[in-house]
Amino acid sequence: MRYFGSVLAMLAAGVWVGGIVCVAVFAQSTFKVLGPEQRELAGTVTSRMFVLFGWIQLTCAALGLLGAFLMYVGGRRGSAAVVFGLLAAAAIGAVAYNMWLVPKMEGLRQAGKSAGPEFKQMHDYSRTLLMGTGLAALVALAVVPRAIRGEKRIAE
Question: Which of 4, 38, 115, 136 is deepest in the core (most CB within 10 A)?
Answer without folding.
Answer: 136
